[in-house]
Amino acid sequence: METTRTSTRTAIAVLAPPVVIGLVGLTHPAHLTQDASAWWRDLHIVLLPLFPLLAVGPWLVARSIEPVYGRITLVLAYVYACFYSALDVLAGIAAGALKYDREGGLATVFGYASDLGQIGSIAYIGATAAAAGCLLRVAGAWVLPGAALALLGAYGFMENHVYPPWGVLSMLAIAVGWALMLTAAGRGPGARAPSRS
């Protein structure tokens, strides 16, 4: 059963995203015109990190009631976050940027993609570092080689996307780094769950 504090947090997670998105949406231009194109583009950049948050609320509610439905909701939320973000990027950011910069074409789209991807990549490096730090607290220095490899891979991903050979090697470094960390922490495949005393 959820505590009052958890219930309040869940309610905020369920209610805040649609309210904030709705408030931002009040300023959405009705049509993509040359005059509206800069705000059209910028509005969708603002909404890019907000749209995926819509999926958090249903997942939190479902997992608090029934773990199986929580997992089903998590998968559906993930699919929504991926594919709706594609809509936001293409019809929002790219269309607005192309309309605003009549001469830019692909250079405009690639420029914005690079800038936004940089933000996501830095966040991924941060998430990797935070999770590695958690494992370091649990398993000590044994996780450091894996952490270093995973962080090197995350940095390589930021620099090279998934272009061969360095981007592909970056993905391999991330996978091997995580495998080493999870094994060192006793959380890898075949590891036994710690006993609860």
UniProtKB/TrEMBL annotation:
<feature type="transmembrane region" description="Helical">
    <location>
        <begin position="43"/>
        <end position="62"/>
    </location>
</feature>
<keyword id="KW-1133">Transmembrane helix</keyword>
<keyword id="KW-0812">Transmembrane</keyword>
<feature type="transmembrane region" description="Helical">
    <location>
        <begin position="74"/>
        <end position="98"/>
    </location>
</feature>
<feature type="transmembrane region" description="Helical">
    <location>
        <begin position="134"/>
        <end position="157"/>
    </location>
</feature>
<feature type="transmembrane region" description="Helical">
    <location>
        <begin position="104"/>
        <end position="127"/>
    </location>
</feature>
<protein>
    <recommendedName>
        <fullName>DUF4386 family protein</fullName>
    </recommendedName>
</protein>
<feature type="transmembrane region" description="Helical">
    <location>
        <begin position="12"/>
        <end position="31"/>
    </location>
</feature>
<keyword id="KW-0472">Membrane</keyword>
<feature type="transmembrane region" description="Helical">
    <location>
        <begin position="163"/>
        <end position="186"/>
    </location>
</feature>
